[in-house]
Design goal:
The complex is a heterodimer of chains A (198) and B (140).
Chain A (H helix, E strand, L loop, with lengths): L2 H34 L3 H4 L3 H5 L1 H5 L15 H5 L4 H10 L1 H9 L5 H21 L21 H15 L8 H4 L11 H7 L5
Chain B lengths: L1 H25 L56 H4 L4 H4 L46
Classes of the chains: A mainly alpha (198), B mainly alpha (140).
Chain lengths: 198, 140
């Protein structure tokens, strides 16, 4: 092998290694930052989130319960799959704008926008067949004997739809609205008009 | 003379300490006869009673008592989650009892379209039930 050829191989090898190293650092750094913004601590670092939705959450079963499993903000509000997560994160840039504009920086302003924000989440859940709920809850894994009669009666048809290999005719959010946060005033009329509630 | 006064004072002090300690032993505070430095007795946990088809009324015009868990329900200034099932629009679909006609009557006697605000706090009249001995004996 001539000296020129040797230098060429050496150069291309080092390019590959530097590329890999840079790739790990940049991609790792990107994902690390992304995960950093995907924690409850990050979400409630804004007083808007800490004083309103986070305060609501603390009264509910998703915050404290018999078995000690807790759902944090991103568990319900940020998709787990990478592509959906990125889409949601890009959409969240409008939240930064409103943070700087102070759109919901008082409890009164928050209440004013609560319906609009809740409807947006309900619609997102409906469109994705309550994807974030299903990270933990599945019709197929429900033991109806362990549920209250009233709950079991309502879940029963959908459990059978799943066991028969069909798509469930209803999704979690169709019935379970306001389970982790307060319901907005006049939510029912608005949800019915938007086709989000029977 | 001085010694006699001192002895009387000491005697009085000793006697009052004795009286106070006897009283302290007899006084039971609201947290029971526990010493203050000991943890209070745990309250006995009473499971809420659930009943298919609801409880019978104990007397005519008794507000029906609640035969299901209400732990997750919230009644606040802006929301009332009971109405998810018991409102005029939803009771049929949810197979739940509808709130009474009387709940639409305002204080001045006029009939409203929506439930009257004085009926907003359901559990002021409608209560969950548990199997417990009455706190106070009564002959009702």
């Amino acid at each position: 092998m001539s000296t020129a050829e040797k230098t060429k191989t050496c150069l291309s090898l080092s390019t590959i290694f530097i590329g890999i190293a840079l790739g790990i650092i940049l991609w790792g750094g990107f994902n690390w930052t992304l995960e950093l913004t995907n924690t409850e601590e990050f979400c409630i670092s804004c007083h808007e989130m800490e004083n309103n939705p986070y305060a609501d959450l603390q009264d509910t079963v998703h915050y404290t319960n018999r078995t000690g499993v807790r759902a944090t903000c991103p568990d319900c509000h940020v998709p787990k799959e990478w592509i959906h997560k990125i889409v949601r994160k890009i959409k969240a840039s409008s939240e930064l704008y409103h943070k700087f504009m102070g759109t919901i920086d008082t409890p009164e302003k928050f209440e004013e926008h609560r319906l609009e924000m809740a409807m947006r989440e309900w619609k997102r859940m409906k469109d994705t067949d309550s994807r974030e709920c299903r990270n933990c809850h599945n019709f197929g894994s429900m033991d109806l004997d362990k549920q209250d009669t009233r709950s079991a009666d309502r879940h029963d048809p959908h459990v059978w739809e799943v066991l028969d290999g069909e798509e469930p005719s209803q999704t979690c959010i169709d019935c379970h609205k306001g389970i982790a946060h307060s319901l907005p005033e006049n939510w029912e009329e608005a949800a019915k008009a938007a086709g989000l509630q029977d | 003379m001085r010694q006699a006064i001192l002895t009387t004072m000491l005697g009085a002090a000793l006697f009052s300490t004795y009286v106070m300690s006897v009283q302290a032993a007899e006084i039971a505070s609201l947290r029971g006869a526990n010493n203050l430095d000991a943890p209070a007795n745990a309250i006995e946990k009473n499971e809420q009673k659930k009943m298919d088809g609801g409880f019978d009324r104990a007397w005519e015009l008794q507000p029906p008592s609640i035969p299901h868990d209400i732990e997750k329900d919230r009644i606040t200034l802006t929301e009332n989650t009971c109405m998810k099932c018991h409102s005029k629009d939803n009771f049929d679909k949810e197979n739940a009892p509808e709130i009474g006609e009387s709940h639409y009557i305002a204080r001045d006697g006029s009939v409203l379209d929506k439930p009257s605000s004085r009926r907003h706090f359901c559990n002021q009249c409608h209560t969950p039930q548990a199997d417990i001995a009455p706190l106070v004996e009564n002959s009702f």
